[in-house]
Structure formats: structure tokens, C-alpha cells
Amino acid sequence: MNAPNDDWELVFRARDGNMAAFAELVRRYERPITHFCQRMLGSRQDAEDIAQDSFVRVFRYLDRLQPSAKFSTLLFGIARNLTLNFIRDSSRRGRGVTQSLTTEEFQEIAVEDDLLRPDRKARLNEIEAMIEQGLQLLSPDHREVLVLREIQGLDYNTIADIVKCRKGTVKSRIARAREQLRQHMEQLGGESL
Amino acid sequence: MNEHIQPEEISAYLDGEASNPGAVQKHLQTCMVCARVHMQIAKLSAHLGALSGPEVSHDFAARVLASIDAATPSGRIAKAWWVRVAVPLAAAAGVLLALSTLVPVRVDAPELRIIAEVPADDQAIKTPYAKAADTTWLFADDAEVQPEPVAESEKVLMALADVHIFDHEAYRLEGDVDMQSALGKMDESTAETLVVLLSDYAKEEVKAAW
To answer: Looking at CA atoms only, how far is residue B132 from chain A in angstroms?
Structure first.
């Protein structure tokens, strides 16, 4: 039998105790969910912790999940709630997650294409670092919609389902986030954008 | 059109979500100010889309499963029923097959070549593990060597092992085969032994795992 293409089929199998099916779900979404969390939190380690917790929550709720929406929408919704909780809790503890991205982490996630000319590669790394920094300066409301749109490639309706707001709100938040990020880039010398 | 388009509309146009994309496109062809905004947003979008994602730890999934395992009251993940049944069955069958090589006597094997879907409401095997209704069982008819004489249960175990029960998914046939009819194709004693065997394993495994 071929591997099931449908996420919900894997969910139903996992619900019946098939852990291989659940592991397949984790493998399918570990990278996009971790990527989303990292862009939201700025910290690679925190992102992976939250991403793992998201999958644990999904497993805990397996019996209650209903295929009324795409599974990925539910999963991103859970990850989104956990990242927002994390940001709120970090603020209460006085630890600003927006300051948590280290230079080393910037470098780790920088473009690694050795085929690029050194000066071109350095310029791209610089722009990427500025974008990273700019993302962390956005409010969580604006950051999440921009990440879901630009990095995850989701459409406005799906984003609205995940963040639980109207499509029009998504539209205006994305535009606002882009404008803020563009201004940030200009301030940092990224005028060549 | 003299008035500039709102940046929100340009942003939505870029995403294919503009309310009137034709009008936006037409305006961008004639208004340098809005065209520049559009170009900047497009470049920014390209950079955002090109951001490299994190390399997820190689043991990410394992850590997720370990967390789930730790949170499970019994301290272990409940495995699929067929794993709980098939593993001990095949292990036992392996031992028996190894022993059989010491007694190289050919006997008639059970005439089994059945692929069966297990319906959840199948009365013949209505045990707690029967909820995995999509599991397929396969039995063979060409066991080459078996000890003589052998118990019915051992015949069944050998037949199961001989056709690689672990690869059951690769043998799935189109359409459902009712387990009741599948059992009906076996000789009566073999079918009865199979049901008893699986029921016994299920009782032990269910007690241990649930």
C-alpha cells in the first residue's frame, strides 16, 4: 500500500494507535512548523522546543480533532498559540524574545550557497540579517501573518483561519507589516531593496 | 488615474488577493510612484521567501515521540494492535521454523492464501484490537518444511511467518475481503486456532498496554 497522501488519514491511523502514522505526520511538518516558530521567536532552540510541544499537543488532542479544516491549519494554529503564549510569558519574565537572536544564529541561518560570489553572498547575508532583525521588531500580530504569507506561502483565507480573524484584517496586517519592514530596511541602509 | 493606490491594495495585488487586480495592474503601468512601492514590496517578499529555514534536529521526531511516551500514564506508547500481535506471533514462528530444520520432513501445508480485511464489527474476531479495521492479513499455501506432527497453532504460526506478515501492507488487494469469509476458506481447525491464538495474544497485550 502506498503511503497515505492525506494528512487526515494519518491522523485517523494515529488515533487507532499507529505511531508510525503519527511519526509520518511529524516528519511532514517538523520543518515548516519549526521555521514558523523560529521566525516568530527569533531563537532556534526555543523554536524547536515549541514546535515539538505543538506536535505533543496534537497527539493529546487526536481524539478530538475533526477534519473540518486542513490538518496543517490546525497544526499551525496550535503552534501559533504556543508561540504567542511563549512571547507573553517571556515578556512577563522580562526576557524579550525579540532580543534573543544571537549573531551566531543569524550566521547559521544565513545563505550558505557557496556558488555565490563572496561579495554577493555577503550582501545577501547582510540583507537577510536585516530582515531577521526587522521581523523581530514587528508586533506578534503583524509578524505572524507576514511569516505565514511570505515564508509558509499560505493564502489569506488560510491565514485568517489560523489566526482567527477576518480576511480583511489579514490583508491590512500583511500590508502594514511589509511597510514597517520596508522602513526598517531603509533605516538600516537596505535602500537597494 | 491620478490618485495613488493604497499600499494595502498593492500588497494584496502582489499576493494575488487584490479586490480589483485589473485596475491595480493598469495603474502600475502608468504611475511611477506606485510602481516603485510595488517593486520594493516584491523585492522584500522575494527576500523573505528566500530566508533559509532551520535545519531541524535529526532526532526531532524521536524527541516528540519520547515526550508523548513520557506523558503516557503507562509509560509506553500504545502500539498498533497488529504490531502487538504480529511481533510475538512472528517471533514464536521464527523459533518454530528454526526447530523445523532439525526435522526435515515435508508435510502438507495448510492451504491458505488469503488476504483479509478485518471489519470492525466482525464477530469472529471481535476483540479489542479489531478496531484497526484497515489491517490486512496474509497467509500462504506453500510452506516447504514443517515438523511432523505439528499442532494446529504451530501450523498457523509457520504459515504466518512464511509470508512475512510484517509486509502486510505491500500485499493489500483492491476491495475489502470479509474476514468471516476468509476464515471460511481455511480448514476449520486452522481457522479456529487462528482466532484463539489472536484472541489470546490480544488479551495479554491489551492487559499490558491499555
So the answer is: 6
> CB B54 to CB A48 under 8 A?
yes
Contact B53 A34 (CB under 8 A): yes
Contact B78, B72 (CB under 8 A): yes
Q: What is the pLDDT of residues A81-138, one digit of tens each?
A: 999 999 988 877 765 554 444 444 444 444 444 444 566 667 777 888 888 889 999 9
Question: Across the A/B interface, how many CB contacts are shorter than 8 Å?
Answer: 131
Per CATH, which fold does A103-193 belong to?
A: Arc Repressor Mutant, subunit A (1.10.10)
Q: Name residue, grid cell 500514564.
A: B73
Q: In this complex, do B80 and A20 lie within 8 Å of one another by their Cβ atoms?
A: yes
Phi first, then psi: give them for residue B50, nearest 5 degrees.
Answer: -90, -5
What fold characterizes domain A1-100?
A: Rna Polymerase Sigma Factor; Chain: A (1.10.1740)
Q: What is the CA radius of gyration of chain A?
A: 18
Measured between CB atoms, which of B49, B54, B80 is closest to A18?
B80
Distance CA B200, CA A126 (A): 66
Residue B53 carries which side chain, given as an amino acid letter? G
Cell of A176: 502594514
Interchain pair B15, A179: CB under 8 A: no
Amino acid at residue number A80:
R
Domain ranges of chain A: 1-100, 103-193
Among A19, A31, A175, select the one facing B8 at the smallest CB separation: A175
- The predicted structure's pLDDT at residue B150: 45
pLDDT digits (tens, 9 = 90+) for A151-190: 999 999 999 999 999 999 999 999 999 999 988 888 876 5
State whether residue B64 sits within 8 Å of chain A by CB. Answer: yes
What ipTM describes this predicted complex?
A: 0.76
In A42-70, which ranges are continuous DSSP H helix? 44-60
Q: Would an 8 Å CB–CB cutoff place B41 in contact with chain A?
A: yes
Pick from B48, B41, B43: nearest CA to B24: B41
Q: What is the pLDDT of residue B186?
A: 59
